[in-house]
Amino acid sequence: MTATESLCPVCLARLPARREAVGEDGWLVRTCPEHGEFRARYWHGPPGPAGWDRPKIAPSGTAAAGTAPGEGCPYVCGLCPEHSQRTCTVVFEVTGRCNLGCPVCFADAGTGFDPDPTLAALETRLIRARRAAGPANIQISGGEPTLRADLPDIVALAKAAGFPFVQLNTNGLALAADPALAGRLAAAGLDSVFLQCDGVTDAAHVALRGRGLVREKRAALDACAAAGLGVVLVATLVPGVNAGEVGDLVRLAASLAPGVRGVHFQPAAHFGRYPGNGDSAPRLTLPEVMAALEAQTGGMVRAEDLHPPCCEHSLCSFSATYRVLPGGRLALAGSGGCCDKTAIPAEEGARQSMAFVARQWGAAKPVPAPEAIKDDFDRFLAAAAATPTLSISAMAFMDAWTLDLERARGCCIHVAVPDGRLIPFCLYNLTAADGAALYRRKSCA
Amino acid sequence: MNDTPIYLPESGDWQCAACGQDLVPAPVGVTYLQGGFTITLMTCPACHLSLVPEFLAVGKMFEVEQLLEDK
User: Fold this and answer.
1) pLDDT-based confidence at A432, cuts 50/70/90?
2) Number of inter-chain CB pairs under 8 A, A vs B
3) Contact between A205 and A213 (Cβ < 8 Å)
């Protein structure tokens, strides 16, 4: 049992909490004086949470938990002195509009009528975000960013502001409808597309997005490949809906490598817009995704291949990188496997993670011409370039029921909000049982 | 006979700080995971520590190490 802090999912009051281990399961438990006890399972199955650890050494000057000013963590984000990890990815929302009306949406997009910020306002915000975050990666998000006709200009401004790796978070509909758009974005400096793709069947898209989208996803993939953009397939996973398609998604990604650079799974969290009741809803935890990967790929991806992150809190994600062999077979790349448990400085973990993301999720390096190979180092690099690689990863977002403030303080994915603050992704999107947001301003009709 | 690629510092006479001996070219094994190859580096004949020139350390060697780095 370990101690942490959490919130009451009803009133969002901060509460002392504990992580209870029951077999190979992990439960987050706390009691609100007004609303009673809440128990949320955040980990289910092997490997149990106890051994899943890659500790980070917080930067010097990080304040002890409980010392943040005013109301304290998590109410004074921006970031506060208790935060123990720097920004590795700035999430930058450029519109609240959307061309889908998904039943599941962490941003609850498309429900308001706020006008889009002007390009000049975004430029100012990008410069401010870069100053606050340092040399981090950036993900342009929304809403659906491709609804903005000036999206290539926004990409160029992000590059000019000093973000070395620029990624677009999109449903891909505009990329499919206008195949030239991918080329315009690439020319503006876009490196990578985080393409929402919840499965290989129309049924998965109908359930999560409201209509069949397989044909459009494929057209978007083709357009991105033609434009030389790296693509990551991103699936929101819901138990009983599309969790049975993780193996097929891996096979699809492998068949499209090196155009597709990774598959990233996001078990649905209960914030923003989601069906059902957050208290009783089934949650898919990271070890369940690991088990599904192993079972559905016939052991080509093994749970033991997957390791905890070097940047964010250990309980928040897993990943592994594979070489894609002929016939779509996967072979674990590098030394692989879990895991180096030596504590590393948080800053060094962030550096490694940012460099890896830029390298793996951007376009693949071309294979060098034979005449450019001068020595064994060149031969090693050429051999590596000749075999595509594919990353397989997952991130477990926290909602009001699963929120663990130690994890939130170790977060490296920060939303750059309009007033200039950087707020950890889960805290920014967190909503209470009645839908009230901790941070995100609800767009009003 | 040593016919491996030679990576020498761009200038200067180099001595081993620990042993005081002049460095001499010598074959050195470079190992990455299960694979590897041999190169020639300036090496201390006493303690066998080698000098990796800066252009190699921040160039091709860095590129190869980046390939092996995960997140």
Assistant:
1) very high
2) 55
3) yes
